[in-house]
Amino acid sequence: MPKVSLDPDVQRLLRFLSALSANNDRRWFADHRAEYDYLWQWWNDAVQRLIDRVAQFDDEAEGLLARDCVFRIYRDIRFSPDKRPYKDHFGAAIGRGGRQCKRSSYYLHISPGECHIVAGIWSPDTRVLTALRRAIDDNFDEWRSIVEAPEFAKRFEMWGRSLKTAPKGFDKASPALPYLRMKEYCFDHRPEPAFFTTDWIERVASLFKMLKPMNDFLNFTLDEEL
């Protein structure tokens, strides 16, 4: 079996984030600012390469810049009881509008605790959520052929908040009920750190490509119904 070569910069990032998690204060961060600056530049470069790769199969990524897609490491603690100043992960959202995207898009999250390769719509407003539920209910065979396809279901798990019963205006006997109860539509793959070999950008892009039909289904609804 060939030896797996892990990306040294991903390993470096995980070490930094692990140390940051244990020392989440401004003094420690200032003392390690040079390491953060190196990793932040590396992350922006890597995300741009990933964007460019995704744009080869999804027009939603065309013209995006990494600076508009990556999330800042600084937490908004103004109204939070958790006063830790820094996030313990690096993240980036790839979709029309970057991290401000309101459409179904792609998300990459790297942290020492767990990593995520995700696509979908998180926390849509009531009008959008109702339209998505209606589209899934009306076109359930198509939806199921995407998200319950064996290769898709083997790699991705649906996650998010859910109602305990059918939403108002929907039939409790609908075969789509497990999906209609959802408050968001996100599908997640949680890779181990060993996933991040030197060709990890291509590997992430391949998973995003598998998620594209699901994004297309949801975005078609946004374009046609709203």
Please provide a written account of the structure.
- There is one protein chain.
- The protein is α+β, with helices and mostly antiparallel strands and 226 residues long.
- The protein has one domain (8-225): BirA Bifunctional Protein, domain 2.
- It is 46% helix and 11% strand.
- It is built from nine helices and five strands; from the N terminus they run ααααβββαααβαβα.
- The chain has helices at residues 8-22, 26-31, 33-54, 66-69, 126-138, 140-147, 150-155, 177-180, 200-225; strands at 90-94, 105-110, 116-121, 157-159, 185-189.
- The protein has a five-stranded antiparallel β-sheet with strand order 1-2-3-5-4.
- β2 (105-110) and β3 form a beta hairpin.
- α1 (8-22) packs across α3 and α3 (33-54) crosses α9 (200-225).
- The protein is globular and about 60 Å long.
- It starts with 7 loop residues before the first helix and ends with a helix.
Which key phrases capture this entry?
BirA Bifunctional Protein, domain 2; 5 strands; globular; about 45% helix; alpha+beta; five-stranded antiparallel β-sheet; 9 helices; about 230 residues; single chain
Helices and strands in order:
Elements: H1 8-22, H2 26-31, H3 33-54, H4 66-69, E1 90-94, E2 105-110, E3 116-121, H5 126-138, H6 140-147, H7 150-155, E4 157-159, H8 177-180, E5 185-189, H9 200-225
Helix pairs in contact: 1-3, 3-9, 5-9
